[in-house]
Specification:
Low-confidence stretches of chain A: 4-8
CATH topology of one domain in chain B: D-Maltodextrin-Binding Protein, domain 2
Radius of gyration of chain B: 24 Å
Number of helices of chain B: 19
CATH class of the largest domain in chain A: Mainly Alpha
Structural class of chain B: alpha/beta
Largest sheet of chain B: 7 strands, mixed
CATH superfamily of one domain in chain B: Periplasmic binding protein-like II
CATH architecture of one domain in chain B: 3-Layer(aba) Sandwich
Helix content of chain B: 40-55%
Mean pLDDT of chain A: 88
Shape of chain A: globular
Mean pLDDT of chain B: 88
Number of strands of chain A: 2
CATH topology of the largest domain in chain A: MetI-like fold
Strand content of chain A: under 5%
Number of helices of chain A: 14
Low-confidence stretches of chain B: 1-42
Distance between the termini of chain B: 64 Å
Number of domains of chain A: 2
Oligomer: heterodimer
Distance between the termini of chain A: 40 Å
Number of strands of chain B: 14
CATH class of one domain in chain B: Alpha Beta
Radius of gyration of chain A: 26 Å
Strand order of the largest sheet of chain A: 1-2
Structural class of chain A: mainly alpha
């Protein structure tokens, strides 16, 4: 039996040949930008990272030499160690805060919820540099409110930007900045759940708390995984906040505080473009490994991010 | 399912590598967008008066540069300055370094602090001006100022602005606590103790972000850190842990330990606020301090603060040593199209009477040009910030004239970054002052070797 559809399709075979060409045309605007601004610089940076140049020497090919140097460089390793510690502490706090906010907002039905949603989201809308400068002033022992607060109980305010406290100071800024953004992602996922499921749960005798933790949280686990990956990548590439706080940090933020700051300083302050490229790629490798470990560990529960 | 997750990992990984690779993109991208090379009129921040004359592009960040460039352009038919501000200090150097690495995008003339000049010479970024008539203006500068920008017979920049160091102090606080102006560092420490015992404010500040300041103070006590000549750029001698330097480091650590001086970073609102509200009795600073503080909002009129200038305290009053903190120059870049013309601008910008006078009037420049430095008008100008004290004559001009110059290393920014770490350890007491300098000596020697220098 002949398939009428196949007969109909036969003459169009010539057009089929042309289709790939048309397709390329459609992705060209993206493709060109992708190649010129992403692939080409990456390739060039990788090329740079294979050479080494001392201030008093010429450029020589060193192959993987720079990478060996990077992964034995105590400055780089201490930066990596810092961002890993930072990620381990930061991400659970950030996820707990944003999840709690999203669950509360999802359960609220008053007009207040819209205002609260906006208020929690606003910090994300403030540019990171501005937000960090603002916190710098709040932390300031001269201008900040802390000095006055602690005066009430006759204590002197802690120096939040001292080397002992800078970890917590940065943690606070980042949670403040990003919790609202993650809250919106979780909130959107919650809105996507079919309300009839809640109804069914209620008929089965589930209370609001059970609905939240037994129904809602498992159903948005892929959104949670997504924000975890975002947070992990963002934290390992930590740069803006410490860089902005550096002039007022009384020396607690050094040139190798985080790997990205180290790469920036190497390139633009110490004129070592080759080694800076290596540091950037080494950081990329570390991020890749970290995300792979996470996705591998969580593979059983989900079918990947997509 | 498995392939799908693998795919996700691979694509995520590619994305991450892309994101992490962000920083070197800038270097690959070929420098700043406001490429001023070759006098591109479109990027000037000023108006060109004589449109037919050839243009020379200049990067500079002097607060009054706008006015001065206009003056220059009005008085020159043969050349016009096309000025843009590429950032202050480190920001500009970052752009300049990028332009050098890219081979394009640098201006014809660039403003540089003297301390970074040898580093840029090593990168073949600067033109030897002795071949372009630098000697014509040599007589305009003190020997020290000229030494800062030369190496052997070569001259790589023309000095503009200087920073002879002095101590400015709050006369009102000194009077209140009965303190006499210290002339030696021993007296400085004693006065600090006296202030503390009487419940007064900090005597001064030891901030970890002013390594140039600390370098100057160690130099005052005989440190000869670098033995380096740009003519022989493969060799360097390093001597950071001599006894004089150790004495200075231990001295400041002692003041910090006793709580006599604060340990705040400088050049930020907190510190300026502290200077304005009387948290510090002195500010060991340079000639640009009054102008800087006025611009930052700390003035004599408000808060009843009475600032006065006094010479820098000495280690050996019989043999006073004058040192310098800051100061800046104009250099001609190797990317300049017409190097003679660019050299003309480097020599003549901030050099006419009118241009120099504006720097003095606006308190933005401490001129190194002897035309101004040696003039009566400059010497006898009552400085408003100091309640009319003739601080130039009393303090700053003698300090500048006694300044003998300094030999900088070709890796000043790295050295400062390491010195900052040493200063942090001096402050938090994790190392003694002497120990931190011994370690610094080792770090810098290792660094120089790793960068391919032969360490003498």
């Amino acid at each position: 039996m002949t398939n009428p559809a196949a007969v109909l399709r036969a003459p169009s075979r010539r057009r089929n040949l042309r289709r790939p060409w048309i397709g390329w045309l459609f992705i060209a605007p993206f493709g060109v930008i992708f190649l010129v601004f992403l692939v080409a610089p990456l390739v060039y940076a990788f090329y740079l990272s294979l050479f080494s140049k001392g201030l008093a020497t010429g450029t020589t090919f060193s192959g993987a030499g720079n990478y060996v140097k990077a992964f034995t460089d105590p400055e780089f390793l201490s930066g990596i160690w810092f961002v890993i510690r930072f990620a381990v502490i930061l991400i659970p706090i950030q996820m707990a805060v944003s999840l709690a906010a999203a669950l509360v907002l999802d359960a609220l039905t008053t007009r207040l919820s819209r205002f609260a949603r906006l208020a929690i989201f606003v910090p994300y809308a403030i540019p990171a540099v501005v937000g960090t400068l603002m916190w710098g002033f709040l932390y300031s022992p001269t201008f900040g409110p802390l000095t006055d607060l602690f005066k009430v109980v006759n204590q002197s305010a802690p120096e939040i930007l001292s080397s002992g406290n800078i970890f917590g100071g940065l943690l606070n800024i980042v949670v403040w900045q990003w919790a609202g953004y993650y809250m919106i992602i979780i909130y959107a996922a919650l809105r996507g759940i079919d309300p009839s499921i809640y109804e069914a749960a209620r008929i089965d005798g589930a209370g609001p708390r059970q609905i939240a933790f037994r129904i809602k949280v498992p159903m948005i686990s892929s959104a949670m995984a997504l924000i975890l990956v975002f947070a992990l990548i963002g934290t390992l590439q930590f740069f803006t906040e410490p860089q902005v706080l550096r002039p007022i940090s009384n020396g607690s933020i050094t040139s190798s505080f985080t790997p990205n700051i180290y790469a920036f300083d190497l390139a633009f302050r110490f004129s070592q473009f080759n080694y800076a490229s290596t540091i950037s790629f080494s950081l990329g490798i570390v991020v890749f490994i970290a995300v792979y470990i996470f996705l591998f560990a969580s593979r059983k529960r989900r079918g990947g991010l997509s | 399912m498995k392939t799908k997750s693998l795919l996700a990992v691979v694509s995520a990984g590619a994305l991450l590598a892309a994101l992490a690779g962000c920083s070197p993109d800038v270097s690959a991208g070929g420098g700043s967008t406001d490429s001023a090379g070759g006098g591109d009129a479109g990027s000037c921040s000023n108006t060109i008066v004589n449109k037919d004359a050839p243009q020379v592009s200049v990067w500079a960040w002097y607060p009054n540069i706008n006015t001065v460039v206009d003056m220059f352009n009005k008085s020159h038919d043969d050349v016009q300055v096309c000025w843009s501000n590429a950032g202050q200090g480190a920001d500009e150097y970052a752009k300049f370094s990028t332009a050098i690495a890219a081979g394009t995008g640098a201006p014809d003339v660039v403003m540089l602090e003297a301390e970074v000049v040898p580093g840029f010479i090593l990168q073949d970024a600067l033109v030897d001006l002795s071949e372009h008539g630098a000697d014509d203006v040599k007589a305009n500068f003190s020997a020290g100022a000229w030494k800062d920008v030369s190496s052997g017979d070569s001259v790589y920049a023309i000095p503009v602005d200087g920073g002879p160091m002095a101590m400015i102090y709050r006369a009102d606080i000194f009077t209140k606590y009965g303190i006499t102006v210290p002339t030696t560092w021993d007296e400085y420490a004693a006065a600090a103790q006296q202030l503390k015992d009487a419940g007064g404010p900090f005597m001064g500040d030891f901030g970890s972000n002013v390594p140039a300041w600390f370098t100057a103070l160690m130099t005052q006590n005989g440190q000869k850190a670098w033995d380096y000549e740009s003519a022989d750029p493969q060799k360097i001698g390093i001597d950071l842990n001599d006894d004089g330097s150790k004495k200075v480091a231990d001295y400041w650590q002692d003041l910090v330990k006793k709580g006599l001086v604060d340990t705040k970073d400088q050049f930020n609102t907190d510190y300026i606020g502290g200077l304005a509200n009387g948290s510090y009795a002195t500010y060991v600073s340079a000639a640009w301090a009054p102008g800087y503080l006025t611009g930052a909002g700390a003035s004599t009129e408000g808060d009843g603060a009475q600032w006065q200038a006094a010479p820098l305290p000495q280690w050996d009053p019989a043999n006073p040593v004058s040192v310098n903190w800051g100061g800046s120059t104009f250099a001609v870049t190797t990317q300049a199209k017409d190097k003679d013309l660019a050299a003309t601008v480097a020599k003549e910008l901030y050099a006419s009477d009118e241009e120099l006078q504006d720097g003095v009037d606006t308190q933005t420049i401490f001129p190194l040009n002897q035309k101004m430095l040696a003039s009566d008008a400059f010497a006898t100008t009552p400085v408003k910030f100091f309640n009319g004290q003739t601080a130039n004559k009393d303090v700053y001009i003698p300090a500048e004239n006694a300044y003998e110059g300094y030999t900088y290393s070709p890796f000043t920014t790295y050295y400062y970054s390491e010195l900052t770490k040493s200063m942090v350890s001096i402050i938090d007491g994790s190392k003694s002052g002497s120990q931190s300098l011994d370690d610094l000596q080792k770090t810098m020697t290792d660094y120089a070797k790793a960068q391919g220098f032969t360490v003498k």
